[in-house]
């Protein structure tokens, strides 16, 4: 029986994690939950899971929760990690704010199931150090990385030729760069294959998300960037692949449902029964299409490789600029292509720190957001 602390409980991954936990009352006990500002949804979760003892919420309102301890305010996740008795942390927070909880849990000696890719994009250097010091583990929840993690069971680390991360191409994959100038927020938010949160849907359309995933893969699987490749695969049926040095390519297929990767991360190396509404039926699957990645069409992916290779604090800048730019796009203050411009300029202007600490990364994140707002003449 694993005791679970879940961060980001009311979001898309959080909700699906709750479903996985509900399906396995013999394997999991949910002991703590945290959320940002959805206090009504969080209250409902606490009512549905009487095993919850500790609750954290960023929003400081007077919602009451039926549990032993409630932590409110910006420090709530760290408070919960420090004061909750749990075995496994599921970090389903969106954004840079997910980094510190990842570090805090590893420091406490508790493994992390990671859906918060920013922990690695912005803070990979610190997370790597912490993993080495504490001999803890990260289990990937991101579908591509879960796929790779599963494929890697087929061979040894030194036999890997390369990872092949698949990319659907996002909402605008059939549009040329010229056509991108006039796209709307609504169009950007309709992803062809996956139903996800707003930020990641926009990040998929700019291919920033795939760039994040390349950096994530580098840290998760301890491989150099020239062994991490990407390919366009419109159907998102193959979630990713690993090619070994004997030329065997192992792929993992599945439906567009995050519960499988969530459960695999939480149960590794076991594979208990999982009930899914629409499991993949090969006979209904028409085709698997692949296309070579186009770095001119998707410059953010190219930039991610550069940022990843230089390491230091550049990932924190890349992510901070993106978080801010996506927000401005959703508020219709900048256009879709100006998201890319924001990130490019912010990374160019970033003061490079080779060996950053957490304070340096927080400052880099703050400065990147400030830079983007200033760049578009907005209030700081
Ligand atoms: Mg993904």
Question: Class by helix and strand content?
Answer: alpha/beta
CATH architecture of the domain at 2-136: 3-Layer(aba) Sandwich
Taking pLDDT < 50 over at least 5 consecutive residues as the criterion, the unreliable ranges are: none
Number of H- or I-type helical stretches: 15
Task: Give the overall form.
Answer: globular
Number of strands: 12
Strand order of the largest sheet: 4-3-2-1-5-6-7
Q: In percent, how helical is the residue content?
A: 40-55%
In short:
The protein is of the alpha/beta class and 380 residues long.
Describe the structure using short key phrases.
binds magnesium ion; seven-stranded parallel beta sheet; Rossmann fold; about 375 residues; alpha/beta; five-stranded mixed beta sheet
Characterise this structure:
It contains 15 helices and twelve strands. Helix 4 links the parallel strand 5 (88-91) and strand 6 (111-114). The longest helix is centred in the last third of the chain and has 18 residues, at 358-375. Helix 4 (99-107) runs parallel beside helix 6. It has helices spanning 12-23, 39-48, 76-83, 99-107, 118-121, 124-134, 143-151, 185-188, 198-206, 208-221, 259-267, 299-310, 314-330, 336-349, 358-375; strands at 2-7, 28-35, 54-57, 69-72, 88-91, 111-114, 138-140, 160-167, 228-232, 238-244, 249-253, 291-292. The strands form two sheets. The protein has a seven-stranded parallel beta sheet with strand order 4-3-2-1-5-6-7, sandwiched between helices. Strands 11-10-8-9-12 form a five-stranded mixed beta sheet, covered by helices on one side. With 380 residues, the protein is of the alpha/beta class. The model has no long low-confidence stretch (mean pLDDT 96). The radius of gyration is 20 Å and the shape is globular. Among the domains are: 2-136, 3-Layer(aba) Sandwich (Rossmann fold), CATH 3.40.50; 144-254 and 295-311, no CATH class. The chain binds magnesium ion (MG). Magnesium ion (MG) binds at residues 142-144, 213.
């Amino acid at each position: 029986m694993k005791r679970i602390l879940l961060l980001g409980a009311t979001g898309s991954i959080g909700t699906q994690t709750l479903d996985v936990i509900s399906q396995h009352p013999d394997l999991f006990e949910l002991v703590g939950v945290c959320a940002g500002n959805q206090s009504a949804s969080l209250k409902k979760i606490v009512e549905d899971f009487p095993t919850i003892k500790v609750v954290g919420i960023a929003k400081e309102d007077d919602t009451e929760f039926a549990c032993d301890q409630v932590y409110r305010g910006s420090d709530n996740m760290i408070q919960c990690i420090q004061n909750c008795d749990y075995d496994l942390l599921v970090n389903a927070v969106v954004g840079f704010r997910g980094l510190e909880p990842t570090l805090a849990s590893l420091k406490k000696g508790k493994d992390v199931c990671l859906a918060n890719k920013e922990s690695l994009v912005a803070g990979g250097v610190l997370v790597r150090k912490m993993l080495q010091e504490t001999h803890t583990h990260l289990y990937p929840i991101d579908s591509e990385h879960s796929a790779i993690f599963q494929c890697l069971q087929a061979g040894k680390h030194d036999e890997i030729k390369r990872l092949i991360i698949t990319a659907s191409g996002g909402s605008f994959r059939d549009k040329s760069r010229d056509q991108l100038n006039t796209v709307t927020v609504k169009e950007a938010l309709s992803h062809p294959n996956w139903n996800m949160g707003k930020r990641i849907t926009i990040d998929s359309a700019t291919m920033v998300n795939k760039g994040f995933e390349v950096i994530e893969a580098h840290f998760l699987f301890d491989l150099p960037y020239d062994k991490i490749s990407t390919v366009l695969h419109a159907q998102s049926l193959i979630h990713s692949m690993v090619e070994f040095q004997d030329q065997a390519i192992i792929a993992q297929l599945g439906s567009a449902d995050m519960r499988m990767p969530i459960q695999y991360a939480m149960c590794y190396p076991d594979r208990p029964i999982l009930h899914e509404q629409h499991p993949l039926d090969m006979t209904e699957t028409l085709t698997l299409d692949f296309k070579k990645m186009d770095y001119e069409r998707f410059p953010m992916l190219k930039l991610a490789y550069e940022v990843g290779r230089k390491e230091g604090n550049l990932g924190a800048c890349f992510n901070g600029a993106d978080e801010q730019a996506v927000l401005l796009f959703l508020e219709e203050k900048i256009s879709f292509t100006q998201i890319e411009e924001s990130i490019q300029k912010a990374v160019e202007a970033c003061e490079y720190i080779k060996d950053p600490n957490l304070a340096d990364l927080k400052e880099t994140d703050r400065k990147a957001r400030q830079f983007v707002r200033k760049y578009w003449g907005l209030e700081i």
